[in-house]
Amino acid sequence: MRASDAERERVAETLREAVAEGRLEMDEFEQRLDATFKARTHGELVPLVSDLPVRGGAVAPVAGLSPVAARGTSASVDWSRRIGGPATSTWAFAFWGGFGRKGRWTVGRAFTAFAMWGGGEIDLREANFEDREVVIRCFAIMGGIQVKVPPNVDVHVNGIGFMGGFDEQTKDAGEPDPGAPRVRVTGFALMGGVGVDRKWSKTQRQRLKEAERQRLRKPDAGDGRKELG
What Å distances lie between residue 201 and 4, 91, 148, 149, 205, CA to CA? Predict the structure, then answer.
């Protein structure tokens, strides 16, 4: 059977989790990821994840991809798999330049970012969390720091700005997921700014759209017509 773009992305997500957990070396991950996006059939996708566990310890199937089909939707995130483990980064610094933390990384329970005459990006949308509550301390002096957070995470913003400010965008924001981590963004901005953007990533948006399309394709049992006796 021919593979869809959504199925290739689900396999890619399984591979990303595997390398983050240390199940795959980086070179093997890159090889499998390249093969994933070149695959045209389910038969080509199966070997790429057949030796990798998914939620509950089962092996990830490709034909249905049911264990990972709902990943990326607010209700399906297994936060227990994304909370805990050692931090891969606890600070960032930019002076006349920039920094970036994004993709699959583990944010420390206390993360400090400083930008002066420069800028930085802290993207938590695909990140893991060292603890259930993390504090992001941002200090921007004639510079800017952008914090990107998934809408289903509990976020609190209480920074101080002097001739600058803290700005929170809540375009996609909804109710936090049960068990989701709490992120507190605080700090100080002097003639600069810190922006907190709560929105889905492009990949997550695609997953949500695919999940919605699948939901709409399912027949509604309540729509059946009653036969006249």
Answer: 20, 23, 9, 9, 6
**Is there a single domain that holds both residue 103 and residue 180?**
yes
- Check if the beta carbon of residue 207 is closer than 8 Å to that of residue 179: no
Question: Is 28 in the same domain as 92?
Answer: no
The C-alpha torsion from 156 through 160 and 166 to 168, rounded to 10°, is: 20
Assess if residue 36 is contained within a domain.
yes
Q: Nearest CA to 158 among 185, 198, 197, 122?
A: 185
Same domain assignment for residues 27 and 97: no
pTM over 0.85: no
pLDDT in tens, 69-125: 333 344 456 788 899 889 999 999 999 999 999 998 999 999 999 999 999 999 999
pLDDT band at residue 212 using 50, 70 and 90 as cut-offs: low
The answer to the question of residue 76 being in a domain is no
Domain enclosing residue 139, as ranges: 83-202
Give the count of domains, the chain.
2
**What is the C-alpha separation between 149 and 127, in angstroms, rounded?**
9
Both structure tokens of 198: 């709560």
Do 126 and 165 share a structural domain?
A: yes
Residue 154, strand partner residues: 182
